[in-house]
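Discrete fold record:
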Amino acid sequence: MAHKKEQLEELNGIKNEIKEIKELLELCKEDFSLESELSKKIDLLRLKIKKKNIEVRFKGKYDKGDALLSIYSGAGGQDAQDWAAMLLRMYQRYCQKAGFKNAILDQDFGQAGGPEGRVGVKSVTIEIKGKYAYGTIKKETGVHRLVRISPFSAQKLRHTSFALVEVLPRIKDGKEIEVNPSDLKVDYFHASGPGGQYVNKRMSAVRITHEPTGIIVSAQTERSLAQNKETAMQMLYAKLYQLKTMEKQKELSEVKGSKISASWGNQIRSYVIHPYQLVKDLRTDVETSQVNAVLDGSLDEFITAQIQQND
């Protein structure tokens, strides 16, 4: 009810703004100096309506809440780990532009190397906080492919790298996810940074294994052991929720006679830096030659198209 009331108030606010613009339009017929103010109001209202037009499509249970975004490097050593690090930066930059807060919850660093000695990422999980964060970002789940001249190749060879992006809702209480404490194996360890060195003298990092499913989650960025354990449990709830959803999809596919798969081979987007420059989403056919802008977080065109495609 609170959510519906908030939506109604926002829509009424838009109606009032339209009314004000109509009144200002009449005044502009007598005073042309008001045209600049009118133009600004129209531009702001257009952006607000565009945003609301996207938000009304979010009908999933967790769409209006926070998200957990994980990136896993594929096969390919340093190139794949460097690509995972590039994706991490891309999503962090996107969050800044979209007004979402983000924080790293767990990170497994890769090897350092290349001309700049940069450190890659084997896997990383970030929390994305903000209104409709999960609904906005959830369709980024899938395999992302990069084609470029490898910075790690002395022969300057072209290399193709893959990384898997997984987006889950952040489930704080887990009331609907049944977890038997006896099914959990909890390990404590020192948090580590680039190169594997310890960054905390106390054992504050937590790894939880859900033995019936084999799901493993870990958290190490908080200073408190209790905080990391709470974060890890929320990550586990999200993973179990995903598993439950996939089982339902499998049942539905058997009824419909179609196959629904979330496998590693499901490539959703290609980022080509060499021999030409192009980013193309394989689901919506949205593409752009502005590769650097996309890698700097300009993802609105891709995300909006994917949300609208499912109407």
Q: What stands out?
A: The longest helix spans residues 225-256.
